[in-house]
Amino acid sequence: MPEVRASIRDEIGTLREYETVYILKPDTAQDEISQMNARVRQILESMGGKLLDLDNWGKRKLAYEIKKQLKGIYMYWRYLAPSGVVEEVQRNLRMLDAVIRYYTVRIGENIVPDTRTSAVDDARFTAAAEVRPDEEEIVTGAAEREEYDDEFGEPNMDEEV
Amino acid sequence: MAPPFPKPKRKPADDKAKKRIFIRRKVCRFCADTKLKADYKETGLLKHFISERGKLIPRRITGNCAKHQRQVATAIRRARMIALMPFVVTGK
Fold first, then answer.
1. Using N-to-C axis directions, what is the helix angle for A85-95 and A30-46, rounded to 10°?
2. Is the pTM of this model over 0.90?
3. Nearest CA in chain B to A100
4. Do A63 and B81 touch (CB under 8 A)?
5. pLDDT in tens, A46-84
6. Pair A84, A45: CB distance under 8 Å
7. Which of A25, A94, B30, B40 sits 20 to 30 Å CA-CA off A151?
């Protein structure tokens, strides 16, 4: 808990509430996502923040193209944090190649951390890293095919001939 | 007591006038339902407030009150940032 407040607006002993959404490239591997999540969580907790909610919205179609990608995996975080954490989280997200967009919104101020309970347990934390196939992949049958013949993740087309 | 003269027949102009008076007053959807909140994550609700081109629809047409129109506009702008909603819809 910060004893010194970074802003005169903050009351001592309280934190701000933030939401961060970041979009990953659609072909990001599951271990990469869980590593990334662990890193963000570590930053939050080491700097005196508290994770409230973590959710994977799955693979979604983007409304417009970002970095040549038309789809993205959305990760949603809600947390309490003192000043400076958001900058640190965003600095880390910027360094990761898989992150194509991040966005943070402040949704509350002067929140006493003990009044909020975290909805995130270990099971939920690991589940959030899971990559599920999106609707399009299920319809076209691309999701059924687990075997890829090369490291680029292209489906093996030759076998069907 | 009977009227001293027969009631005049209604002129067609009266019909016209009557039609023009009837204007449906729009109510702000967010004031009517206090549970409703303009949230940037809920694109299902927000898409009612953008045009086919993806532009914000003005208050004069949506009927939102000033306070809620501001909230809707902010929410849409946020949704655009994370590609949940388009900045512009082109005919591609």
1. 160
2. no
3. B82
4. no
5. 988 888 888 888 888 899 989 988 989 999 999 998 888
6. no
7. A94
Residue of chain B whose Cα is closest to the Cα of A75: B82
Interchain contact, A63 vs B84, CB within 8 Å:
yes
Structure tokens at A115: 């009044």
* Residue pointed to by tokens 């292209």: A154
Task: Name all domains of chain A by residue range, CATH numbers in brackets.
Answer: 15-130 (3.30.70.60), 133-161 (no CATH)
What is the full DSSP assignment across A72-126? EEEEEEEEEE-TTHHHHHHHHHHH-TTEEEEEEEEEEEEE-GGGS-----HHHHH
Could you tell me the sign of the dihedral formed by the alpha carbons of A99, A104, A110, A115, in that order? negative
Q: Are B86 and A63 an interchain contact pair (Cβ–Cβ within 8 Å)?
A: yes
pLDDT for A137-152, tens place per residue?
Answer: 666 665 554 444 444 5
Q: What ipTM describes this predicted complex?
A: 0.72
Domains annotated for chain B, with CATH where assigned, are: 26-81 (4.10.640.10)
Contact list in A for residue B86 (CB cut-off 8 A) is 63-64
Chain B partners of A63 at a C-beta cutoff of 8 Å? 80, 83-87
